[in-house]
Backbone:
């Protein structure tokens, strides 16, 4: 993991087309602004994990057998 220090209104660039800017620092919270192309999905980690879990559950073979029983 790369750890960087940034102050309010300072940015970093990822892959030449994603800019992350520190918008505000208040106590132990940091507000970030992310400018990225529309085709680049940006998720909070907990939301991303939930999506991955749901995708994994939808591939569960027991769900497929339940669907087959419907027909």
Residues:
């Amino acid at each position: 993991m790369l750890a960087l220090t940034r102050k309010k209104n300072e940015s970093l660039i990822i892959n030449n087309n994603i800019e992350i800017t520190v918008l505000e620092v208040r106590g132990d919270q940091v507000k970030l602004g992310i400018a990225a192309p529309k085709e680049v999905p940006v998720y909070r980690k907990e939301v991303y994990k939930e999506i991955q879990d749901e995708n994994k559950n939808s591939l569960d073979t027991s769900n497929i057998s339940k669907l087959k029983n419907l027909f």
